[in-house]
Amino acid sequence: MERKPLKSLLIPEEGRIDVEALLSLSAARLQVLDETLRDRQALRDEKRTYQRIAEELEVSPREALSILSAIRNIRRQRERLEITDAELFEDLNSVSPIASDAEPILGALLGRSEDDYFVEKVGGLRQVLLPQLTEMRSVVDARPVFDRAKEKLEGMVLVAYLDLGAYDPNSRERTNQVIQVSRKQIQELRDLLDETEKKLDKLGEALEDHDVFE
C-alpha cells in the first residue's frame, strides 16, 4: 500500500518506524513520557534519557531510542521549518491516526519548553555523535576435547563471550557485536573500567562549583 506523502515534516522511510512507535502510545503513556523528558532532577541518576524512558514506559531500550529519536527529529523540524500545530497533526495523522485525547499531550510533548531544552542539551552532550551502548550480556560455555579417535572425552575448554548491543545516532543503525574474552582480559577490562570511574570522580570534584550531570 502506497504511503500518503507528508506536507510539512521530512521523515525518511527508515524514520517512520520511530514516529509510529511514538504515535502508538496512549494518552496516559504520552503524559508519563512528557513528564520524564521535562524532569531535570532525574538527570542526576546517571541514566541516559532513553534508559529513563524505557524504565518509565516499560519498553525495550531499542523502542525507547526509537521514541526519543522521533521526538527530537520532529522538535528540530518544528523549530527550523516553523511548522504549525495544524500542519504537524495533519502529517502525523497521515503516518498513524491519533486519538483525540492524545493530541493535546502530544502537541505539548513535541513543543519545546526551557526544561525540554535543558534536559535535551544535557542528554545530547552525554551521548555525542558516537555509537551508544544499549545492551550488554555475557555468555560462558564449555567446549569438549576428544581424543584423536573421537571416542573418549579428554577434557573441557572454558570460553566466555560478551554480547554488546549499540545504537549509532548517525546511521540510525542498531548492531550487536559478540567478542570472545579470556579470564585475563576480563580482569584487564575490570581494571580499565575502575580507572575510568576514578577519572570521572576526579573531574567531578574539580567542577564541584557547577551542576554536574552524568
Verbal overview:
The protein has 214 residues and is α+β, with helices and mostly antiparallel strands. Helices cover 50% and strands 19% of the residues. It has a 3-stranded antiparallel sheet. A hairpin with a 6-residue loop joins strand 1 and strand 2. Helix 2 runs antiparallel to helix 3, helix 2 (27-38) runs parallel beside helix 6 (103-109) and helix 3 crosses helix 4 (61-81). The model has no long low-confidence stretch (mean pLDDT 85).
Beta-strand segment tally: 3
Biggest sheet descriptor: 3 strands, antiparallel
Task: Classify the secondary structure makeup into a structural class.
Answer: alpha+beta
The main sheet orders its strands as 1-2-3
Low-confidence stretches: none
Our Rg estimate from Cα atoms comes to: 23 Å
Q: Span from first to last CA? A: 45 Å
Strand-residue proportion: 15-25%
Specify the number of helices.
8
User: Helix amount, in percent?
Assistant: 40-55%
- Name the shape in a single word: globular
Q: What is the average per-residue confidence, as pLDDT, rounded to a whole number? A: 85
Give the SSE order as H and E letters: HHHHHHHEEEH
